Amino acid sequence: AKPDPLRIMISGAPASGKGTQCELITKKYGLVHVAAGDLLRAEVAAGSENGKQAKEYMEKGQLVPNEIVVMMVKERLLQSDSLENGWLLDGYPRSLSQATALQAFGLQADLFILLEVPEEILVERVVGRRLDPVTGRIYHLKYSPPETEEIAARLTQRFDDTEEKVKLRLRTHHQNVEAVLSMYKDITIKVNGDAPKEDVFAQIDNALSKLLEEGKATSGSL
Ligand code: AP5
Questions:
Q1: Is residue 213 pLDDT above 60, yes or no?
Q2: Residue 218, pLDDT score
Q3: Residue whose CA lies nearest to ligand 1 atom number 48
Q4: Tell me: the pLDDT tens digits for 116-131?
Q5: Would residue 136 be called left, alpha or beta, if left means φ above 0 and alpha means ψ between -120 and 50 degrees?
Q6: Which of 43, 122, 125, 148 suits a disulfide with 51, CB 3.0-4.6 Å?
Q7: Whose CA is nearest to atom 2 of ligand 1?
Q8: Which residues contact 178 (CB under 8 A, 6 or more apart)?
Q9: CA-to-CA distance for 201 and 152, rounded, in angstroms?
Q10: Are 200 and 115 in contact, with CB atoms under 8 Å apart?
Q11: CB of 70 within 8 A of CB of 98?
């Protein structure tokens, strides 16, 4: 029988580079990028009831309640493109209960990537981050500046990207990370995220190629 497509989880502190690595991974492996934070921000932007509630927690750097997050992520993972091409789950699970919920739905990952970056670097990354609302690309004023004046002029900043808010997000991360890691010990790879993004990707690329070589999974169709 044909092996299943790759199913990958990526985790790490706020601004550890999850979104940046997901851009590189999806480009090469054709997986569907499912980012809990992006799904939540889409709800906030749409002004839905879930979005209104979610924003209150996101502004405090706290986890949005499971009632909102769990079904949202599950539904996205079970859409036909994710099932066919494989998925890359970013920023979920962030608690033991989110991990067990996923398991209960029969959704298992092949690999759990943990990006490790020293804390003093994270604040600088958050404060300098900018987003291109047209392409969805992530920039940094110093480390990954926009290519043209036109892009520079339209860049936006996330509402939770202040020094004060990232400290709250970091605290929430520390409260939950160990419990989540304990669930995925056997499939975890720790990646040094404190290096140029291409070097970080090389470590991840290596691990994903090995998985494919072992024939446990196939890559997406892109
Ligand atoms: P979410 O959107 O997931 O935010 P986060 O975890 O804080 O992570 P970030 O998106 O800030 O960072 P990233 O790791 O993607 O880094 P990036 O690549 O952009 O969550 C936001 C909120 O939503 C949470 O606080 C919570 O309230 C809620 N939420 C989300 N998931 C939830 C869940 N499962 N349950 C409940 N609530 C949930 O990089 C950052 C910057 O650094 C960029 O400017 C980039 O250009 C730069 N950079 C990246 N890599 C490098 C490098 N190697 N060298 C130099 N600079 C780099």
A1: yes
A2: 74
A3: 17
A4: 999 999 999 999 999 9
A5: left
A6: 43
A7: 37
A8: none
A9: 25
A10: yes
A11: yes
Query: Which ligand 1 atom minimizes the distance to the CA of 195?
Result: 53
* Pair of tokens at residue 138: 């992530």
Q: Hunting for tokens 């991360």 — which residue is that?
A: 173
ipTM value greater than 0.90: yes
Asked whether the beta carbons of 56 and 64 are under 8 A apart, the reply is: no
Contact 129, 96 (CB under 8 A): no
What pLDDT does residue 4 have?
Answer: 84
Catalytic residue (choose from 28, 158, 167, 197): 158
Section 163-175 average pLDDT: 95
How much distance in Å is there from the Cα of 213 to the middle of ligand 1? 30
Reply yes or no on whether 129 is catalytic: yes
Name all domains of the chain by residue range, CATH numbers in brackets.
Answer: 7-209 (3.40.50.300)
Q: What is the maximum alpha-carbon separation in the chain?
A: 52
- Residue 144 backbone dihedrals phi, psi, to 5 degrees: -150, 65
Backbone angles phi, psi at 12, to 5 degrees: 155, 165
Ligand 1 site, CB within 6 A = 12, 14-20, 36-37, 40, 57-58, 61-64, 69, 91-92, 94, 98, 125, 128-129, 138-140, 143-144, 169, 195-197, 200
